Amino acid sequence: MLAATAAAILATMAIALTRALLGPSVYDRILAVNLFGTKTVLIVAVLGFLSGRPDFLDIALLYALVNFVGVLAVLRFFETDRMAALRARRGADS
Amino acid sequence: MSPHLIAEWAGNALLLVGSLAVLVGGIGILRMPDVYTRLHAASVTDTLGAGAVLLGLCLHAEPGIHLAKLLLILLFLWMTSPVFSHVLAKAAYGEPVRPYTGATG
User: Model confidence at B104, in pLDDT bands (50, 70, 90)?
Assistant: First the structure.
């Protein structure tokens, strides 16, 4: 059952990569990358148990932390970018 | 039937549920029409899928530090997934990414 779970998670990761490549907007890509990251956490945990070395859980925990902060940083970048563009447009109007 | 065997079977059942939820969410993220509905599909894999898989692993693990780590990962994923969904929807809604309403043109 562990191997079947690993296969399902790998298939979902492949689908997420497809969505990240297809887009169409930048938010679709960020969403797909976040999904890929959380599935990486899951597959590291599952593979740790599959190979009989549960110490891999440390890596999964660390990856969960780094993934969340990284994706949120990218999102903030795009949001502030949009706010700056909006402000510049208002400045040009007045 | 020993408690150990029951725990293993329950763990396998939870892993199966988690695999199905993860797969359904993956198909949803490919087939849904716009960002907001895809966000909904991705949330399913993050809550039900990750929850069931990690709880299934908990039932396979020996009591101890590994169990605590699994629960810590689960807690963290459950706390951060709604935050991410909220921030992404908020960022996308300001852009001209209009929600899909079924109307064409």
Answer: low
Report helix, strand or coil for B100: coil
Task: Give the pTM.
Answer: 0.84
CA distance B28 to A26: 18
DSSP assignment of B20-65:
HHHHHHHHHHHH-SSHHHHHHHHHHIIIIIHHHHHHHHHHHSPSSH
Contact residues, chain B, for A16 at CB < 8 Å: 26, 29
Buried b (16+ CB within 10 A) or exposed e, B2-15: eeeeeeeeebbebb
B29 to A49: CB separation less than 8 angstroms, yes or no: no
Residue with tokens 């690993």: A6
ipTM of the complex: 0.83
